[in-house]
Design goal:
This protein is α+β, with helices and mostly antiparallel strands. Helix content is 27%, strand content 12%. The chain contains 7 helices and 12 strands. α1 packs across α2 and α3 runs antiparallel to α5.
């Protein structure tokens, strides 16, 4: 379904100093017969070197103490990361309609692209999520989808505040200052941290998918000084319990029984009203989604819909035989549904 519609940009932020990057680029370019990996990579992956046009504007600032830094002031290494992010955003902005942030120490979970395509389609169709600013399906500066038309504004915000906070925290400051078009807070100019956050009701929705779609690789940080921290969530873990995310970035707990995207519609609807989008809840089997460890055999993906009980005339109008048949069918349907819900790895995805 996504053939020819996805392009992966791999940027080398240390040109000439990354032999693994160069070896992989040469392997894909060579396209040797029988190298199926290289053949697939050539269809989707673009390798590029960071042009080095975005550089630290304050290289002489003193380094912060990573263990005593309540204001999260970024050091030179973090500011370099922000420059790298800006470089990639500027390259990617004109290439597509959507942009997905990915870090090099994450792997994509099984069927993540299908789930992400579903979440994007749903977010773009739901009236209460109109004008969404971004969709998050993982943690860190990773698993975030934005419309490319919004990338220049983020680029500008990151550059303005590069000495204030790390890029993943600046990202949160950016999204809470994005007003709905035409609202009283829509000034028509780019906003900065000098502006107050926009109230939720007047803010462009920030959508969070219920499940984590990317898994962190390894436990060693790229920074030398890091205190002990909790384990990272794995594939299809709840996005409500990611310890590293701020509250605004987590899946809203109140939505867990209502929807798989948050923010979700109000629990109650006027009598007789129908939802704008008839999203059906279907039990879905994701390999490795039930906590299976890497290396264990994955089950074949299967989309299974709970059996629907055939409709008969209303009970008061049905004959005794029809009533018995209806009761038998209902009992069978309940039994099948119970089996479906008890199957390991079953996920109820609207």
């Amino acid at each position: 379904l996504l053939y020819g519609q996805v392009q992966v940009l791999v940027m080398n932020n240390k040109p000439g100093q990354h032999p693994e990057f160069e070896a992989l680029r040469q392997r894909v370019a060579a396209g040797d017969a029988g190298d199926t990996f290289a053949a697939k990579a050539a269809l989707y992956i673009s390798f590029l070197d960071n042009p080095g046009t975005v550089t630290d504007p304050a290289p002489d600032l003193p380094e912060p103490d990573d263990l005593n830094n309540p204001g999260d002031r970024p050091g030179s290494q973090v500011r370099k990361q922000t420059c790298d992010v800006i470089s990639l955003l500027r390259h990617a902005a004109p290439l597509s309609s959507y942009y997905l942030f990915m870090e090099d120490d994450f792997q994509v979970c099984p069927y993540a692209l299908r789930a992400l395509q579903y979440a994007l389609t749903k977010a773009s169709s739901a009236p209460h999520l109109a004008h969404w600013i971004a969709l998050r399906a993982s943690y860190g500066m990773n698993g975030i989808v934005m419309r490319n038309e919004d990338l220049p504004a983020l680029d500008d915000f990151l550059w303005q505040h590069i000495t204030v906070k790390p890029p993943d925290l600046l990202w949160v400051e950016f999204l809470i200052r994005q007003p709905l078009p035409g609202s009283d807070h829509d000034t028509g100019r780019p906003l900065s941290m000098a502006d107050k956050p926009v109230p939720v009701g007047s803010r462009r929705p920030f959508v969070v998918y219920k499940y984590n779609l990317m898994a962190h690789l390894g436990t060693i940080s790229s920074f030398a000084v890091r205190p002990d921290r909790p384990a990272w969530p794995g594939c299809y873990a709840s996005m409500n319990k990611v310890w590293s995310l701020q509250t605004v970035e987590r899946f809203a707990l109140r939505c867990r029984l209502l929807d798989d995207l948050s923010p979700c519609p109000a629990r109650s609807m006027p009598q007789g009203a129908k939802p704008a989008e008839p999203w059906l809840k279907m039990p879905l089997d994701w390999p490795l989604a039930a906590g299976l460890l890497p290396g264990q055999p994955a089950r074949s993906p299967r989309l299974s819909v709970a059996p629907r009980t055939p409709r008969l005339p209303r009970r008061e109008e049905a004959s005794e035989g029809q009533q018995q048949q209806q009761q038998a069918l209902e009992q069978h349907g309940e039994q099948q549904q119970q089996k479906q819900e008890m199957r390991p790895g079953g996920w109820g995805v609207p």
